[in-house]
Amino acid sequence: MNLSERIPNNVDLSSNKRLQRALEHWQPKYLQWWSEMGPQGFQNYHQVYLRTAVSVDPKGWAHFEYVKLPDYRWGIFLAEPTPDRRINFGQFKGQPAWQEVPGEFRNQLRRLIVTQGDTEPASVEQQRLLGHHCPSLYDLRNLFQVNVEEGRHLWAMVYLLHSYFGRDGRDEAEELLERQSGNRDKPRMLEAFNTPIETWLDFFAFTMFTDRDGKSQLLSLSESSLDPLSRTTRFMLTEESHHMFVGDTGLGRIIERTCQLMKEAGFSEDVRKVGGIDLATVQKYINFWFSQSLDLHGSEVSSNAANYFTNGLKGRAEEEKYKDDHVLADDVYLLDVVGDDGRPTRREVPMRNALNEVLRDWYVEDCRSGIERWNKKIQSHGIDFEFTLPDRKFNRQIGIFSGLRFDPSGRPIGPEEWDRRHGDWLPSSKDNEYLKSIQAKPVYEPGKFANYIAPPLRGVNQQPIDFEYVRTEL
Ligand code: BYC
Q1: More confident position, 7 or 288
Q2: What DSSP character marks residue 208?
């Protein structure tokens, strides 16, 4: 089978010799990276029941089969073109969308694509050891589905780099495989992608909150005047929703099980004594991954964001829903800041410079729905506990609040109070150890689940919950 037959695509790869040549060079390096940095211990002797995108129509999505991970068919897909698509924001609003990269925006566009691309292999690297500690075969399969799709998202960005950025693009594509999550000399570009994900609670919180940053960023990029970038990211969004489903339902199932354990123990017992994850611990992981993901939206006041918008490279999420002129030349944003006296106050900022914050607003609202759903679940069990999203000033490392200390409600606090109390708000090494202790023994028996998590409501692709989602070949 030649390259263009092996790689499912809708970009006419078979007649694109330049792309074929670039991929022939890059693909073996990708496979090498996957075998070294992808899921450890599950590469050669396991068949995984995975979904592979074979085309962009809904039927193309329903393709499920058992595959060995290195044999997964990573494809290149763009959403169907919008006829006569016009730029819908920024200084070129109303003009036809670009099919090629304008020279003057080449560097900015490359930077955006590389930053997006860098997060994808990073997340696979972060999660590579989790398979050894899975709570069930159903969850193991979901982890691998997320991993192969993050791999495909890397392919999506590499396709753009190879097709539109010549030599520089090919160099960048190689570097995407050279940086490594957490590596001291060559770390991944954005900070949240250098933190290892060692526990399943981290994994679910990451897919709930950090993949949701993926959603907000991909929505913004799908507005781009560069039509191939817009179409690529539109298709990626369909996969991103599944990742958030894994996170949202994973946390929901942990919460459900905790409620059951609390009930069984007469509400008085420390749920850790019966092997569950107490709700206060879940809140700490929410606090951590939510605040990390807020950082991923960049600084509140950003000339990069202003340039991206003005030049039509990156819009707002769901740009068409905004009722303004989509040019924002004279608009202002009222930004929450901390005054010189240390008190919260507000400052007017040109709207274009505040667009990272505008996207953060969108993101925070999108996160809230999950919290509300989990709270309803807890209430239905008659338990008096409510999850909250921490204030956006809490635990920030990027932007105007970095270096300042706030409690989760957004109250400014001093360094002593922070030192004394941050273990109540963020995961401590003890929490981490506890989680590692309850996941130490993986559950590989079909239909069985670790004690700390409830089974899902239904299986994958209408298969039963006790389906053998991952098979071991001896
Ligand atoms: N960590 O003006 P600023 C996903 C840098 S997740 C480290 O504040 P800007 C996924 C910034 O690069 C979505 N550095 O921010 C999820 C800049 O450096 P330069 C990924 C940071 O540029 C789960 C400087 O600080 N996609 O898909 O407006 C699993 C000042 O920048 C950070 C994207 O990010 C940070 N957190 O916005 C798998 C979309 N934040 O240029 C995948 C593309 C900022 O001065 N990226 N810096 O050297 C962007 O749109 C922008 O780069 C950002 C930053 C929103 C990230």
Answers
A1: 288
A2: I
